[in-house]
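In the design runs reported in the main text, the only information available to the sequence generator was the tokenized backbone. The following block is the verbatim input for one such run; it is reproduced so that readers can re-run the procedure and compare outputs position by position.
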């Protein structure tokens, strides 16, 4: 059944990403939010994610508020769920931006048991990354790792704690104790510099003796609590009670390959961006979700460090992207050709054509070819329905390279009672960093379609080579392609 008819009978749809994030979730969330959903809920990640929304022809970048907020005026409810890392400073900033543009958020709900991001989380994230030097992870610096660490360590604060000053103050002191001890081993000037960043209100929380000014944090955060109080509620119960009655859209964040359960640890974020993490983060089980749509970009990107077998230009690209961003790259590299004989150049051309720069950090994203071993791995968790996004970015490619499988090229590696040996074929990626970084991709090279697909809305109108490319992906993975995205606009889709 075509997706557009099938969704009429569904109550729950999740849009997640099957790659390293940045696959264009916002566009599809916006599509389902506008034509289908009553409730739009996020349940994972935090301000490390970012999506660009268009309000009155102006671009607006949001990190925490779901893309569905633009439909608040239609009475749709937006939810920030319990699994999220919630920074109230950023929520208030984003709400102020919505105020400026006259966008209402009367129906926004925030989980009382969401994980509360506090100044110490940003400080620990940034100080730790700078200590790690060459071995850094390349985090977004939004405090994500430390806040989820505190949750697992049983010392985290929850969003509702801001509403009870005594509880907040007591829990804050307990929470700070181990961090202060750790910071004493670090360069005090570095700590001071980090604490004077604008994200930490230019030093408002800095105490030269104990690093953190407890009173300043208590005053500021209980103040935030007062401003947000009317939105804080039991969102788990709300979602559970809405099951089967309202149409609920679950908006994923990051991507499966960036998760700390199924991704390439340690170069990952600290939550589980799969359907399992998302369902838990809104108070449900994953089998409560009727349809899971896993987005797969027609090529791949990655931000930050970590193995990327199909990267155009390999280590050179990773080094280049570490030093470049949206603002300085074009000064040094102008007019790259998407069909160049030099793969590094092809990667730069794809980055420009696909506008592959971080929404949160503006960093240049590393680019590579579509990788089927990674997709097969992702589908073991996120199921078989996929959306292919940004297909049109490849419109001018003479050849389409797709990684069909890997050949392992590393030293012997014990895997349970088996031994992985040099030269062995791998069809489903193993995410262990030592293995993934020793995998040589074997490419299938298909002929490109060399036609503008951005105006096509029907599969039958796609050029033959484009259809062959889609058929190849289906044949080699067992995926069911439900939508092909052929441009940034909500209408630029082919429903399959
Ligand atoms: P963190 O989530 O800030 O701790 O960053 C950990 C890793 O995940 C880094 O490599 C980040 O670049 C990456 N990461 C986190 N959020 C996103 C995202 O929304 N898109 C792409 N990469 C991300």
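Verbatim output:
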């Amino acid at each position: 059944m075509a997706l557009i008819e099938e969704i009429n009978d569904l109550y729950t749809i999740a849009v997640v990403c099957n790659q390293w994030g940045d696959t264009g979730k916002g566009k599809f969330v916006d599509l389902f939010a506008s034509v289908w959903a009553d409730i739009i809920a996020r349940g994972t990640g935090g301000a490390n994610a970012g999506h660009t929304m268009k309000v009155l022809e102006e671009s607006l970048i949001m990190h925490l508020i779901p893309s569905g907020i633009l439909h608040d005026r239609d009475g749709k409810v937006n939810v920030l769920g319990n699994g999220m890392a919630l920074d109230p400073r950023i929520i208030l900033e984003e709400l102020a931006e919505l105020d400026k543009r006259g966008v209402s958020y009367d129906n926004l709900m925030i989980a009382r048991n969401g994980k509360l991001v506090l100044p110490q989380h940003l400080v620990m994230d940034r100080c730790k990354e700078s200590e790690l030097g060459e071995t850094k992870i390349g985090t977004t610096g939004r405090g994500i790792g430390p806040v989820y660490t505190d949750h697992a360590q049983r010392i985290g604060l929850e969003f509702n704690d801001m509403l009870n000053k005594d509880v907040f103050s007591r829990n804050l002191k307990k929470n700070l104790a181990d961090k202060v001890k750790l910071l004493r081993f670090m360069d005090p000037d570095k700590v001071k510099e980090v604490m004077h960043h604008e994200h930490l209100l230019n030093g408002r929380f800095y105490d030269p003796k104990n690093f953190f000014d407890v009173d300043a944090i208590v005053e500021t955060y209980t103040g935030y609590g007062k401003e947000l109080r009317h939105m804080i509620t039991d969102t788990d119960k709300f979602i559970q009670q809405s099951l089967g009655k309202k149409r609920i859209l679950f908006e994923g964040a990051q991507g499966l390959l960036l998760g700390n359960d199924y991704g390439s640890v340690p170069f990952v974020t600290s939550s589980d961006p799969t359907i399992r993490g998302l369902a838990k983060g809104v108070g449900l089980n994953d089998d409560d979700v009727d349809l899971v749509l896993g987005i797969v970009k027609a090529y791949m990107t990655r931000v930050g460090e970590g193995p990327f077998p199909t990267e155009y230009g390999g280590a050179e690209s990773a080094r280049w992207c570490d030093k470049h961003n949206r603002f300085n790259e074009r000064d040094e590299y102008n007019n790259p050709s998407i069909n160049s004989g030099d793969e590094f150049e092809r990667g730069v051309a794809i980055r420009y054509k696909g506008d592959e720069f971080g929404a949160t950090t503006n960093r240049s994203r590393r680019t590579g070819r579509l990788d089927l071993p990674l997709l097969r791995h992702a589908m073991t968790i996120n199921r078989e329905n996929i959306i292919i996004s940004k297909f049109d970015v490849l419109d001018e490619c003479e050849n389409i390279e797709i990684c069909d499988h890997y050949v392992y090229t590393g030293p012997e590696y014990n895997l349970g009672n088996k031994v992985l040996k040099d030269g062995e074929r791998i069809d489903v990626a193993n995410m262990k960093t030592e293995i993934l970084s020793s995998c040589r991709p074997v490419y299938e090279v298909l002929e490109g379609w060399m036609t503008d697909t951005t105006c096509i809305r029907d599969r039958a109108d796609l050029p033959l080579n484009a259809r062959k490319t889609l058929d190849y992906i289906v044949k080699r993975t067992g995926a069911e392609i439900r939508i092909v995205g052929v441009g940034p606009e909500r209408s630029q889709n082919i429903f399959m």
